[in-house]
Amino acid sequence: MESTLSILVDAKREYTDKLISLMAPVMIDVFHEMFQEASKLSNNRKVLQMFQKLLKEVPNWSNAMSKQHTDNLVNKCSWFNDLLAAVFVSHVKILSAVRLKTENRKLSLKLPTNEVFVQTVYNNAARELYNDPYIFNEVQSEYARDKELFKRFGDVIETTIKELLPVQHILQTYMGQTDENIDVEDSDPVDDDDVDHEQEMGEEEEEEQGEDALDDGYKPPEQSIDPPPAPTTTTEMDSEIKPPASEGESSVPFEHEVGGEDIKTISTQTQGEEESLFDDAPEQRTKKLRYM
């Protein structure tokens, strides 16, 4: 099991690195052209602010533009779809290795389309550059700039993969359990019939011990029985007055009283407008104090 899992981890790393090496250079060219367009539109005045305005429009790209950027990647790698599927399958296999029971369960995996994945990557990359766009405005070599962008876009791609993974579906399939106590060690499932049989055996043993104690001549001590108290009469007013419910006591029945059905909560929060990312960036990077 451990050797198989280590192989999956290595395969996941190789597939992910290959995907990053394919997408990052193309993304660098796309955002570099966007920065040059911002320079022309702003006449080289407040270029970063114009660049941020163009970055805010990335999530609003049309389907035709998303398909165009996807085709640029597919043209460079004809097996891009297979590579993307291998990345998601390897991630899911590693996550599904953590389970409570050893029984095999089938997990139906729905992969994102190429257009959805590429568009999500560009959205996250635009948000990353919006927060720190100074890399295009700083005086540095093209090699140093591309190296830094390659690293940042690689992190963006990995974040997008984790964002699109069906983690909730995996947990419900392999970690779903109604009991509150979870045993993390491997153990055979206990049958309900065995539990009832054990309880009956325990009751029979207690009865046998009680009979043995009587056979040994044990006699319980005599206890004096007091006469029952005289019944008290209640007036009509007393019968009408009922004690108030204690504080914190609710008249709503418990869950098992209403049938034991699962109660699901529905979020009433409405989806608001698209939130803005951050304020416009200044023309120069501000220095931040760092603790050594």
N/C terminus separation: 43 Å
Mean pLDDT across the residues is 74
Poorly predicted ranges (pLDDT <50, ≥5 residues)?
A: 178-199, 231-274
Q: Tell me the strand percentage band.
A: under 5%
What is the approximate shape?
A: elongated
Please give the radius of gyration in angstroms: 34 Å
In total, the number of strands is 0
Oligomeric state of this protein: single chain
Largest sheet: none
Tally of helical segments = 9
Helicity range = 40-55%
The run of helices and strands is: HHHHHHHHH
| Helix-strand category | mainly alpha
InterPro entries: DUF5764
Describe this structure as you would to a colleague.
- The chain is 54% helix and 0% strand.
- The protein has 292 residues and is an all-alpha fold.
- It has a domain at 2-174.
- α1 packs across α2 (47-56), α1 crosses α4 (80-95) and α5 (114-131) crosses α6.
- The radius of gyration is 34 Å and the shape is elongated.
Task: Break the fold down into its secondary structure elements and pairings.
Layout: H1 2-41, H2 47-56, H3 63-76, H4 80-95, H5 114-131, H6 142-164, H7 167-174, H8 192-215, H9 236-240
Helix pairs in contact: 1-2, 1-4, 1-6, 2-5, 3-5, 5-6
Properties at a glance:
292 residues, mainly alpha, 9 helices, 54% helix, elongated, DUF5764
Q: Brief overview, please?
A:
Helices cover 54% and strands 0% of the residues. With 292 residues, it is an all-alpha fold.
